[in-house]
Amino acid sequence: MGKKHAHLSELDPVWQQITVEAKAAVQEEPLMGGLVHSSILHHKTIESALAYRISLKLSSSEMPEQFVREICDEAYRNDSELALAARADIVAVCDRDPACDRFILPMLFFKGFQAVQAYRVAHYLWVNGRKDMARFFQMRASEVFGVDIHPGARIGKGIMIDHAHSIVIGETAVVGDNVSMLHSVTLGGTGKEEQDRHPKIGDGVLIGAGAKVLGNIKVGSCSRIAAGSVVLEEVPPCKTVAGVPAKIVGEAGCAQPSVAMDQLLGVR
């Protein structure tokens, strides 16, 4: 069994591509050598590299890097879904963000990707009863990345958060697979209710910059929410909504809005 797992790790195409790109990056810019080696080339697996990057970013005088690293290592060791989701996120970012032409970029530079990976470890802690430590991860990710995702939220794979400034996702929010959102998106509540109070976002949804989705409402799969919209009512699948409050203004326009990243309304 051990040999089989080792063989599978050697066939990890995402990690292999990252290491190839890392070696090329050092050749092209030798002054980046220290960063690239410590963050990528020093590690044998993507799990180890992710644990290092998260611990480097989230550690503070209140919580030393070694402690955060040990927590991350434990999470990746005990829950293989964390690294599988990270791989899907890297592919999603590289596929959908025109500013991303290499897998290495999210690992080193993109705070949206890094914030989501920090959330994933925090969620592991949350569901395993370590809620105070999960809140520490949430606090530090908010301070460092400007992305505030409650560790109780449930977020799928293949997530792309572009620019990722001022993102807020509440405790009972659910985000499906292959969702894309831009900066200043809020998935929030509408008051002081304490139960299930946050949006449920289907698969393949595109949420434009500055959009607010409020309350325990469903946003159907493969729909589009226009930039600056305030969504207060349920959105059917495969529709485009816009405005304050948001109204249906047409069909989604394509099978996978989150992949197409087409945010123009009525312009073709």
Short overview:
By secondary structure, the chain is of the alpha/beta class.
Please explain how this structure is put together.
The protein is an alpha/beta fold. The protein has 2 domains: 1-146, serine acetyltransferase, domain 1, CATH 1.10.3130.10; 153-268, 3 Solenoid (UDP N-Acetylglucosamine Acyltransferase, domain 1). 44% of the residues lie in helices and 15% in strands. It contains 10 helices and 15 strands. It has helices at residues 2-10, 13-28, 33-41, 46-58, 65-78, 80-96, 104-108, 111-127, 131-145, 257-260, and strands at 147-149, 154-155, 160-161, 167-169, 174-175, 180-181, 186-188, 200-201, 206-207, 212-214, 218-219, 224-225, 230-231, 239-242, 247-251. The strands form 3 sheets. The protein has a 6-stranded mixed sheet with strand order 3-6-9-12-14-15. A hairpin with a 4-residue loop joins strand 14 and strand 15 (247-251). The protein is globular, with a radius of gyration of 19 Å. The protein starts with a helix and ends in an 8-residue tail after the last helix. Residues 1-9 have low confidence and may be disordered.
